[in-house]
Write a structure and sequence with these properties.
This protein is mostly helical and about 350 residues long. Helices cover about 70% and strands about 0% of the residues.
Length: about 350
């Protein structure tokens, strides 16, 4: 196989992985929205950052935070993000309220505009009452040296650091979930890496067709009629376009790619007037034939596809970009701007 053929085959394989990964990401996003998964991670992160259960419960019921909920605060429909500025205001208000309960004299002294000294006193009172949140906040206030604005910035940075950890948890969880979703897609759509590589190695027309489709996806930021949303760390589609992308996966079979199950083609089922039992039997025979008599090889092909999908769409899009550039097509040149008239 020549270098050109090898690169085209590689682009074709990466393009398939990319399309499958985008589809898996869309499925994952639909599940995340339906189950409120990001909100659950945020709630766990807040508990971890704040520490005190009492402070946490009052915090999520503080109007600045509770207004972000789509339902009762603390229930499943949790917001997926709380701005740092809103968190700081809500936390300080919560701790001031608690300090006023602890010390009635302090409550009388802080009826007007709250100063840095009032905030520090409130946090110190909460700490003395056994609230561990005070242990975390007090050093941040002392580092501000009496400047309430700097103190707020310090607390915001502390909060964002905690949310970065939550983001890390969520990415690890998503990576594991994508492996499961990827395996389901590999089996249900019959995306067998071993069989695909074999077909790409033997068919020059398929290699070129897939390489051209991969190049087009990089240049136009589209896969078929589906528009890609390309960000710094993400490549995704609108969840409602998942069905269209699934159709694109099905269309790849028409290009000669060994994916999907022809036994499930509605037109074929109608033409054969096959019953459910006959369809299942046909699919079983087809899959067995495609496996070449080796089910271990077929399963290995599905597992390789699932593992590839778990790397995520951004990984494959970046690699596809590099391979397309190497192939020599590159991206579309930027339009040349006309020189301003003198």
């Amino acid at each position: 196989m020549s270098l050109t053929a090898f690169v085209e085959a590689l682009i074709g394989l990466v393009f398939i992985y990319f399309v499958a990964s985008v589809f898996a990401s869309a499925v994952n996003e639909l599940l995340a929205q339906e189950l409120g998964r990001r909100g659950k991670f945020l709630r766990e992160g807040l508990v971890n950052v704040v520490g005190d259960r009492w402070i946490y419960l009052r915090l999520i019921n503080q109007p600045l935070i509770s207004s972000l909920y789509r339902d009762v605060p603390g229930k499943p429909l949790t917001p997926s993000y709380i701005p740092a500025a809103g968190f700081v205001d809500a936390l300080l208000d919560t701790m001031l309220s608690k300090a006023r309960q602890i010390d009635p004299k302090f409550a009388q002294e802080t009826e007007g505009l709250v100063t840095f000294r009032d905030v520090r006193t409130a946090v110190a009172l909460c700490k003395s009452a056994g609230f561990t949140t005070g242990d975390a906040i007090l050093p941040l206030l002392d580092a501000a040296r009496g400047d309430l604005g700097v103190a707020r910035q310090n607390i915001a940075a502390w909060y964002e650091s905690g949310m970065d950890r939550v983001s890390g948890w969520y990415k690890k969880y998503t990576r594991r979930l994508l492996l499961v979703i990827g395996l389901a897609i590999a089996v249900l759509c019959n995306i067998d890496t071993v069989q695909i590589v074999s077909q790409l190695a033997s068919s020059s027309s398929l290699r070129k067709a897939l390489a051209d489709m991969g190049t087009q996806a990089v240049q136009d930021r589209k896969v078929g009629d589906v528009t890609l949303v390309v960000g710094p760390d993400e490549v995704k589609i609108a969840p409602e376009q998942a069905r269209q992308l699934a159709n694109t996966l099905a269309d790849l079979e028409k290009q000669g790619l060994p994916v999907g199950y022809s036994c499930l083609n509605p037109a074929k089922i109608e033409a054969d007037r096959a019953e459910v039992g006959q369809v299942i039997s046909n699919c079983w025979t087809l899959t067995k034939d495609q496996a070449g008599g080796s089910w271990l090889l077929k399963i290995a092909g599905w597992l390789l596809t699932a593992l590839a999908i778990s790397f995520g769409a951004p990984f494959w899009f970046d690699l596809l970009n590099r391979l397309v550039d190497f192939r020599g097509s590159g991206r579309k040149p930027e339009p040349v701007k006309a020189a301003p008239a003198v």
